[in-house]
Structure formats: structure tokens, C-alpha cells
Specification:
With 442 residues, the chain is α/β, with parallel strands linked by helices. The chain is built from 18 helices and 13 strands. The strands form three sheets. It has a six-stranded parallel beta sheet with strand order 3-2-1-4-5-6, sandwiched between helices. Strands 10-9-11-12-13 form a five-stranded parallel beta sheet. A two-stranded parallel ribbon has the order 7-8. The protein binds uridine-5'-diphosphate-glucuronic acid.
């Protein structure tokens, strides 16, 4: 079988994209330089926790439309190549590391045949600083007939399959949106079922497409930090931030999503993309315009410190005190612990000398890597046993549904910090708990 599509880089984004494209009926080959990842996916094992992905993967493999490789030579026959490589934060803390992307593009260019007549399309999906598409296009267009588009991905972890197959919109970046471009029809043919289902696609210049993605994530981070800044004001004045957020969100112009106050945002995207956007703005001489993003980052950081201060207010000295942290993943329905607020707070409590236990329904492996096995406990009941303070930092359903009376039987002392504002403080107080929340005065 000659694949029609290749997906280079089958991490989170790439693997979901590859399986989704097979689901749309295309013949797809996914490539990664990590042989273990390739072997796992080829054997139908998902290397991450994502609702709906396992079925999609197995269906793709069983249909014969989906396979995986480590060898770039296997990609040569495909007509469309998606780039799903990661763009991690650079070691200096600012800016995106584009080395994986550049290496992959060079390796791809080396195997692509020069074609007469039929074009080969390369489609970037990674989150990149503005200007990257034009740079990569130069490398690729040295091979006759090879053209680049930028088609940023907006999927959320936990909803990755749904977001890929029913996106809010498709963004196509091309070098010159003022002229008719065959690339648009080629990508339309790949996404035909989505377009037929009514998904809007927007064609724009490379730079605009790159900026849509980074500004979307910066906006989401700003919205979260906005409500978290208001929650500092609430704590100082006795207001309840959940009341404020609920009423604010009913204004259509504001909207209720991403107004959940708490310990703030984490994950592999929002924190790093915000810093990369700032670094890129500075490189382009407009650092001042986006300087407020530094404050967005600082508000987010302060919420983590605030949990530690609250713990001190409740326990006095932290050294030797038994604290249970509920949650390790950066958000529920994910096993991802990259820049996880929960693990960061757990590490800070440990540094302060507390005897910390962390639990999570899915992210125990990640928690163990970060904190060591002696700090990680499987199962909520076991983790709560003997706690003098419980700190809820990832709002898994299981934690939201905890019964205050039953939970108080398990702990040493009924003290709770609700770092996500998901528990009803009255219910918990009535059951004898001392409960504090981020954004609600005691
Ligand atoms: C984010 C974006 O939402 C996606 O659109 C984007 O495609 C993705 O990054 C990416 O660039 O790949 P994701 O990192 O999966 O997706 O997670 P989000 O659902 O955005 O949550 C990010 C963080 O914000 C989590 O730690 C979450 O707990 C926190 N959050 C979210 C809040 O603290 N309050 C809220 O109201 C919402």
C-alpha cells in the first residue's frame, strides 16, 4: 500500500491526527524517531491516556489504513505530509526550540522525489513562532514540486479526538493569500468530510496562521489569570470568586469558559506558548505591546505560592506534617504532568519539609518520575489515610464527588484546601472540616 498521507512526529498531536485521518478514510503512515513509541502504536497500544483514541487506533490498524514506521524512506510515496513535532521551551527558558522540526523537515526533503505535475504538500501543525513557515518553506521548496502550508492544531488534551474530527474552525496558512493557490484544494481534499459537515476554513498568510495559534493560547492563559487575579481581590475582601465568575460568564461577550479560578494553568502548551510568544514579540521589537503577558505568567505563578501559604496558615509549621495532594495531572482526564500545578505545589510543600503524599487516577507514573516512588500512593482512600491536611489540585470527578463525612473518617484531621473551587464549602464545613479555597475568604 502506498500511503496517501504521512504524519511526522507521533506524539500526542501527531498520533491523534494520524488515527483521525485514517478514520476519515485515508491511507496513513505515522513516523517517529522513537522505536518504542512506533512499536507500541503499531501493536495498538496508546502511549498516553486520551478518551476515544484507543478505539480509533485499533480501528485504523485493523482496516489496514494506518501504520507506523521509523524510516523516512517509507514516506517518499505520500502526497501530503503533516508535521506534528513538538516545539518545547528552549533551555534558556524563553523561546521555542525548533530543532526537532528543522531536523524532520531536512530528513523529509532528503527522501522526497522531485515530481513533475503533481505537487507534494507538506502541512505544518506544530505551534511555532511567527516566521517559522517561511523559513521551513525555503528548505522544502529546494525539492521541485514540494509546497508548504501551515495548519495549526487547536486540540485539547482529553478532547483530542473530538477536537480533531469536529474542530471549531480550520486555519490554512499559505505564502500569499492574495493569489489562487493549489495547496488549498489539496488540503480541502484531505479534510473533505469535515468541510462537508460544515466546518469553516479560513485561508490566510503564513504569519497570520502562526499568530492565530499562539494568540489563542495566550488569550486562554490571560482569561484564566484574569479570574485568578480577581480571586486575589476576592480573598482580600471577602467575596466569593465563583459568584463573580458565574455572573461575569453570563455576559455573552465574556463567556463562561476558562473562567474557573484556582491554582492556575499548566500543561505542555499554555505556559510554554505564552513565554515563546513574549520572546517572539521581543525579537520583532513589539515586546512592550505584549508585556502584560509577563504579568499573566506571574499571576499564575502566585496562585501556586498561595496554596503553600494557605497550608502554612492552616497548619502553622509545615515540617513533618502529613499532607495529601489529590491530583498530579495538569488537568483531569489526562495523565500528562508537564508543568503540572499540582506537582509543582507538592514539590514546594516537600521543600518546606512537609511529609507529602500524592495520588491521581491516571498520572502516577508521571508523579513518580517527578517526586520519587515514596511520595506517590495509588488509590484515594490509601492516600488520605492519616492526612493532617488534604489539598485538592486536579479536579477529577472522583475528588469532586468525595463525601465530606466519609472522608473525615479516613484522615487524621479534617482540613481541606480546595485549589480548584469544586467542593461546596458549606457541606464540608457542616461535616466538621476546616476548608479554605483559592478565591473565597474563610
Ligand atoms: C490548550 C488549549 O486549550 C488548546 O486549544 C490547544 O490546542 C492546546 O493547549 C495546545 O496548544 O496544544 P490543553 O493544554 O490540553 O489545551 O489544556 P486546557 O484545557 O487549555 O487547560 C490548560 C490548563 O488551564 C489546565 O491546567 C487547566 O486546569 C487550566 N484551566 C483551564 C484553569 O485553571 N481554569 C479554566 O477555567 C480552564
Amino acid at each position: 500500500m502506498t500511503p496517501k498521507i504521512s504524519v511526522i512526529g507521533i506524539g500526542y498531536l501527531g498520533a491523534v491526527h494520524a488515527a483521525s485521518m485514517a478514520e476519515l478514510g485515508h491511507d496513513v503512515i505515522g513516523l517517529d524517531v522513537d522505536p518504542e513509541r512506533v512499536a507500541a502504536l503499531q501493536a495498538g497500544r496508546a502511549p498516553f491516556h486520551e478518551p476515544g483514541f484507543d478505539e480509533l487506533l485499533r480501528r485504523g490498524l485493523a482496516s489496514g489504513r494506518l501504520r507506523f514506521t521509523t524510516d523516512y524512506a517509507d514516506l517518499a510515496g505520500a502526497e501530503v505530509h503533516f508535521l506534528g513535532l513538538g516545539t518545547p521551551q528552549r533551555a534558556d527558558g524563553m523561546g521555542a526550540d525548533l530543532s526537532h522540526l528543522r531536523t524532520a523537515v531536512a530528513a523529509l526533503a532528503a527522501v522526497l522525489p522531485a515530481r513533475d505535475g503533481a505537487d507534494t504538500l507538506v502541512v505544518g501543525k506544530s505551534t511555532v513562532p511567527v516566521g517559522t513557515s517561511r523559513e521551513l518553506a525555503e528548505t522544502l521548496e529546494q525539492v521541485a514540486g514540494v509546497r508548504l502550508m501551515w495548519n495549526p492544531e487547536f486540540l485539547r488534551e482529553g478532547f483530542a479526538v473530538q477536537d480533531t474530527l469536529t474542530p471549531d474552525r480550520l486555519v490554512y496558512g499559505i505564502p500569499d493569500p492574495g493569489v489562487r493557490d493549489q495547496r488549498v484544494e489539496m488540503l480541502d481534499a484531505i479534510y473533505a468530510p469535515l468541510l462537508e459537515a460544515g466546518v469553516t476554513r479560513l485561508v490566510m498568510g503564513y504569519e497570520a496562521a502562526e499568530l492565530v495559534k499562539v494568540s489563542a493560547n495566550a488569550f486562554l492563559a490571560t482569561k484564566i489569570s484574569f479570574i485568578n487575579a480577581v480571586s486575589e481581590m476576592c480573598e482580600a475582601t471577602g467575596a466569593d470568586v465563583t459568584d463573580v465568575a458565574r455572573a461575569l460568564g453570563m455576559d455573552d461577550r465574556i463567556g463562561s469558559k476558562f473562567l474557573r479560578a484556582g491554582v492556575g494553568y499548566g500543561g505542555g502548551c499554555l505556559p510554554k506558548d505564552l513565554r515563546a510568544f513574549l520572546a517572539s514579540a521581543e525579537e520583532h521589537g513589539v515586546g512592550e505591546a505584549l508585556g502584560f503577558l509577563r504579568e499573566v505568567d506571574a499571576v499564575n505563578e502566585r496562585r501556586r505560592t498561595r496554596v503553600v501559604t494557605l497550608a502554612e496558615e492552616m497548619l502553622g509549621e509545615l515540617a513533618g506534617r502529613r499532607i495529601t495532594v489529590l491530583g498530579a495531572a495538569f488537568k483531569p482526564d489526562s495523565d500528562d504532568v508537564r508543568d503540572s500545578p499540582a506537582l509543582d505545589v507538592a514539590a514546594r510543600l516537600l521543600e518546606a519539609g512537609a511529609d507529602v503524599r500524592v495520588t491521581d487516577p491516571e498520572a502516577l507514573a508521571g508523579a513518580t518520575r517527578r517526586l520519587g516512588p515514596e511520595r506517590v500512593v495509588a488509590g484515594t482512600t490509601a492516600a488520605l489515610h492519616g492526612a493532617e491536611l488534604v489539598v485538592l489540585l486536579t479536579e477529577w470527578r472522583e475528588y469532586r464527588d468525595l463525601d465530606p463525612a466519609a472522608t473525615s473518617e479516613l484522615v487524621e484531621a479534617p482540613r481541606m484546601i480546595d485549589g480548584r473551587n469544586v467542593l461546596d464549602p458549606r457541606d464540608w464545613a457542616e461535616a466538621g472540616w476546616e476548608i479554605r479555597s483559592l478565591g473565597r475568604a474563610p
